[in-house]
């Protein structure tokens, strides 16, 4: 695919998370923010001024018709991902799509096909993948610093506090039909599943236990899985309503620990910073190595994700986190949900046939 | 809002809100919230609470699946848990 001289972005969806997704596009020297789009005209105008865009739209189809724009960032509710991606592909815009990729697996397959046929790049954005302490953790894993990885333990603790999110946004995320899944294990969980796959490889099967708070929020939960290479994974989800989280973003924080044959690698934060300890710690050979001098703000991961997308388009290469990667993580989620509904181990390969287009 | 005040408001607000939302129509709730917002803002001048009430009134004005969801959550909410969350929201900057 041809290299771009400059990337001329259009942002579709100007809600809460766009505050962070925009960061990499605003300070990349070869990226121009051409237009923003939101169904709320007031919000679109405000974002245009705030970010210095040239124009705004309230209908994404009009933004797609703008010949000046050559790439789009799609930050819409999950049910709108498929039509937005198809419209972008038809208009020959390169696409960065916010996670989770889709609601049903066949939608993800259709997005991949649409981008391929149109000859545009499709990237499914997931910022944890770019979080600097996780990048270093992965580098050390690949370098064999702790030997062969045997297990991964991911902890998510939801807590009181965090930034303001509009009530309407919370509500559509809490409704299974509107969101396309559960708010924690599916929506937020996509990040954790992404890290689980990124660090340790392909998953063979999953077994889960999920409880619901208020009948809508899927915590507490335990998600377990086995990798094809025999290693094990565990994701523990809890909510602690009286634990005050002074983080700048969502009221949640993570802990990711990988145990290897000769050591342990622990990342102590991501979304927030509940514990003021080094963001990355390695134990091996009877010694601790603590990394303190690393960018560890959650916003850094969004910034770097934006830069990677722009750099890829300038280099004429596929951005990291392909459509196939996105679809794989959706299969992981579907296996988790199936395991919850049917109370059994579910193999990811069982889900492959759901990628076929449904009958009209 | 100071913690003791947030705690008191949260306890009263949750009990009242649950009874009220489960026993009144969407339109009635939306109308009442608009009035409540004006009163709260006039008395306290607190924009955070005022904006929160405005958002709620908009949700009830629209009705549909979102208010069904709110009622389902309120029916299933454990009072202690809900009060803890509400208190934390009220305390937030």
Task: Explain what the structure shows.
The complex is a heterodimer of chains A (360) and B (93). By secondary structure, chain A is an alpha/beta fold. Chain A folds into 2 domains: 140 residues, 3-Layer(aba) Sandwich (Rossmann fold); 168 residues, Dihydrodipicolinate Reductase, domain 2. Chain A is 36% helix and 27% strand. Chain A is built from 12 helices and 15 strands. In chain A, the strands form 2 sheets. Chain A has a 9-stranded mixed sheet with strand order 14-13-12-11-7-10-9-8-15, covered by helices on one side. A 6-stranded parallel sheet of chain A has the order 3-2-1-4-5-6, with helices on both faces. In chain A, helix 6 runs antiparallel to helix 12. The longest helix of chain A is centred in the last third of the chain and has 20 residues. The model of chain A has no long low-confidence stretch (mean pLDDT 94). Chain B is an all-alpha fold and 93 residues long. In chain B, 87% of the residues lie in helices and 0% in strands. Chain B has 5 helices and no strands. Chain B is globular and about 35 Å long.
Return Rg of chain A in Å: 20 Å
Q: Tell me the CATH topology of the largest domain in chain A.
A: Dihydrodipicolinate Reductase, domain 2
- Count of β-strands of chain B: 0
Main sheet summary of chain B:
none
Determine and state the CATH class of the largest domain in chain A.
Alpha Beta
Taken from the alpha-carbon principal axes, the silhouette of chain B is: globular
The helicity of chain B comes to over 70%
Average residue-wise pLDDT of chain A: 94
Biggest sheet, spatial arrangement of strands of chain A? 14-13-12-11-7-10-9-8-15
Give the full name of the CATH homologous superfamily of the largest domain in chain A: Dihydrodipicolinate Reductase, domain 2
In one word, what is the shape of chain A? globular
* Count of helix runs of chain B: 5
Structural class of chain A: alpha/beta
* H/E series of chain A: EHHEHEHEHEHEHEHHHEEEEEEEHHE
Oligomer: heterodimer
